[in-house]
Amino acid sequence: MKDNLLLDQKPLVDSFLNLGARPLSSFSFVSLFAWCDYFDFELKMINNCLCIFAHGDSGCFLYLPPLGKSFDSSTIELVLKHMAKGAAPRPVNRIENIPGNLLSAFGQGRYNQYSKPAEYVYRKEDLIALKGNAYKSQRHDCNFFIAHHESHSFGAYRDDDFGFCMDLYQRWTDNRTRANSDAVYLSMLEENRRVHARLLKFWRPLGLIARVLKVDGKTIGYTFGYKIDDNTFCIYAEIADLKVPGAAAYMFKSFCADQELSDFSRINTMDDFAMPKVARAKQAYHPSELINSYTVSIKV
């Protein structure tokens, strides 16, 4: 019931997202819906802006800056007042996912401003061609996979792929867990298991583009994403069997070259979660742009 109620709000959210630039992966209904298992979302109109509040165990925050043609300081004050519910504002009462071009709306002195890990954006043609020494390693990985798995297939995700994809995620998580004891990372693995399951279950109404990589009929990889704007596609998830060398590189290249992505010239792979290994992997593909975002909270 909760899922359907939020899905009913998709046309409203999309209409307000379309009023302005959508530079970040979070500026999508998909990003919002992904976290329904962890937050209760409240949609409220304030000063002709759509405000999306996320309520969790620790309190309330604004998931995106106010959505509309514009907003001013009075809108921000009303947002903070609503989150605090008449009490004094708390640190948790913050505004997330603020693009750099909107940061000036939060005047100096009154607010704390925190920089978040930047999102990685690439020229799609670079990710398909993999030309030159800069992409030598990625070309090798793709060629190795093709040479050793002639019977592979890379095709559209179907509902009956769900169980196989979730089994793969569990195997992938088990492998990662054995190699890492960091509590934050392990919690992130569990959170994303639920997020992936949620999005793959509702891929049709969300408008996701999802693909599955198989070898000899066995699922060894899946990936999915969504449109951010007319030029940019976000690859939200990519899981590949760690025991199959080259599978991840081949799947990434193949997805970028997919016919359903033909209208997009840019690929956004989101941020690196401030994890050095993830950062190195994303930097190895030579992003054309890093897009910064910020969190703002009132000084208390």
Task: Characterise the protein shown here.
The protein is an alpha+beta fold and 300 residues long. It is 36% helix and 27% strand. It has 11 helices and 11 strands. The strands form 2 sheets. An 8-stranded mixed beta sheet has the order 4-11-5-10-9-8-7-6, sandwiched between helices. Strands 1-2-3 form a 3-stranded antiparallel beta sheet, with helices on one face. β7 (209-215) and β8 form a beta hairpin. α6 packs across α10 (247-256). It is globular. The protein starts with a helix and ends with a strand.
Number of helices: 11
Percent helix: 25-40%
Question: Averaged pLDDT, please?
Answer: 93
Low-pLDDT sequence parts? none
Keywords summarizing the entry:
single chain; 300 residues; alpha+beta; 8-stranded mixed beta sheet; 11 strands; globular
Brief summary:
The protein has 300 residues and is an alpha+beta fold. The chain contains 11 helices and 11 strands.
Topology of helices and strands:
Layout: H1 2-7, H2 10-17, H3 29-33, E1 40-46, E2 49-56, E3 59-62, H4 73-84, E4 94-99, E5 111-123, H5 124-129, H6 136-148, E6 152-156, H7 162-179, H8 183-201, H9 203-206, E7 209-215, E8 218-227, E9 232-240, H10 247-256, E10 266-268, H11 276-283, E11 289-298
Parallel strand pairs: 9-10
Antiparallel strand pairs: 1-2, 2-3, 4-11, 5-10, 5-11, 6-7, 7-8, 8-9
Helix pairs in contact: 6-10, 7-8
